[in-house]
Amino acid sequence: MVGRHRLPPTGEQAALPADVDLRLLAITQGRTVSEEGVATLHDLGFTTTGVDFSQVAVATAQDRHPGLDGLDFRLLDTDRSGLDLLPPGAFDLVTCRLFLPFVDLVPTDAYARHLLAPGGRLLVTTPLAERQRAGWESIGLRSAALDLLRSFGWADVTEYPLDDLPCLLLTTHPAPERTSR
To answer: In what order do the strands lie in the sheet with 91-97?
Structure first.
């Protein structure tokens, strides 16, 4: 534990960049913004913004962590262009933990890329639908959706085993080098 917050699972820790002087956006759903590691990421040294569509979850997170410098919680409808309200290129790392099965993958990927600085990274942790018991498949992404995510033209895709959850670190292309004439 760091402070009073739970650390992200070991596989996710391995996927986090060593340089913690980064701007991080945690896209969450429901109570995850207040209970599952957003403040922990801040405790690890990241300048952290947690966004969620749940007014109750954001208010709870704000009440639990008042006035911490470098930790911000915002109410955004992340499935309906809410991410478009954030400044482009403003984040070095975007995390989507247990979130992608509940949104449209293609636009969410596009919004995440739009928010990442050149060379930025998207960290995705999600259950696989095929590994869920009957009737619970909707809480996970299908393997084909993960394959699609991997194929979106990332500069690098690294996978970290996390028990029964895939954990992918997807890196955007760096800014082009300027050449002098």
So the answer is: 71-75, 47-52, 23-27, 91-97, 116-125, 165-171, 156-162
φ/ψ region of 123 (left if φ > 0, alpha if ψ in -120 to 50, else beta) reads beta
Can you give the three-state secondary structure of 52-91, one letter per residue? ECCHHHHHHHHHHCCCCCCEEEEECCCCCCHHHHCCCCCE
Instruction: Please tell me the pTM assigned to this model.
Output: 0.84
- Each residue's pLDDT expressed in tens, for the chain with a length of 181 residues: 333 334 454 556 667 766 667 899 988 876 655 555 788 888 888 899 998 888 888 888 888 888 888 999 999 887 767 888 899 999 999 988 888 888 888 888 888 899 999 999 999 888 888 989 999 998 888 999 999 999 999 999 998 877 778 888 999 999 888 776 6
Helix (H, G, I), strand (E, B) or coil at 121: strand
Cβ neighbours for 86, distance < 8 A, ≥ 6 positions apart: 25, 49, 51, 76, 115
Question: What is the rounded (10 degree) CA torsion for 108, 110, 114, 116?
Answer: 70
**Alpha carbons 20 and 111: distance in angstroms, whole number:** 23
